[in-house]
Amino acid sequence: DAGITQSPRHKVTETGTPVTLRCHQTENHRYMYWYRQDPGHGLRLIHYSYGVKDTDKGEVSDGYSVSRSKTEDFLLTLESATSSQTSVYFCAISEGGQGNTEAFFGQGTRLTVV
Amino acid sequence: SQQGEEDPQALSIQEGENATMNCSYKTSINNLQWYRQNSGRGLVHLILIRSNEREKHSGRLRVTLDTSKKSSSLLITASRAADTASYFCATKFSGNTPLVFGKGTRLSVIA
To answer: Is B43's CB within 8 Å of A97's CB?
Structure first.
C-alpha cells in the first residue's frame, strides 16, 4: 500500500464545532486531494493541493477549508460542522496532478455530526 | 456536473461469468481510469487508458475507450467472488484539473 495515512479513522462531533482531519503521506507526491463519499453521489472532490501552500477548490468546497504547510501533510477543516457533512472522507495522493498517473487512496475517515 | 456515469448501478452475476460495466462522460478527456473499492476500504487503481488508446488489458481486465461516443467499458472475465466490489470510472479533463469520479457500479459475484 502507498504510504498514506488518515487520522482519525472515526469521529463523532457535535453540530457547530470545528473539526480537522489529517492526511499524511510518505511518498513525496506533489498532489493531494480530499474527497467525500456519500450514497448516491459517488466521490466528490472537496479541495485539492498541487504543492505546498497551493490549493484549489473542488465541486463541494463550501464549509470546508484546507491547509498544506508541508509536502507530507494535507489538513481538511470543517469550520462549523453540520449534519450534512456526515460522510466518509477520503484523502488521495498522486505524483502527477494532470491525472496522468494513478491516485492512491487512504482508508477513509468516517465522520458523524450529531 | 462533469462526473462520468457508470452503468449499470448494480450487477449480480455467477462466479465464472464475465462482468461488463460502462462509463459515459460528457466532454473531451485526456485519460480515463478505473478503480475498485472493497466494502469499507479506500479505492484502488485498476487501469488507465489514454484518449489516443482504444483498448488495454491487465490480467482478467479489459478496458475499451470510444472517444467518439464518449464512453468506456470495463470487462472482468471469469469473475470470482473476490471481485465483489464497487467499480468507479474517473475522468481527467484538459487543463490543470483533478480526477472526477462517477457514482460507481456495485458488482456482486455469487459463488
So the answer is: no
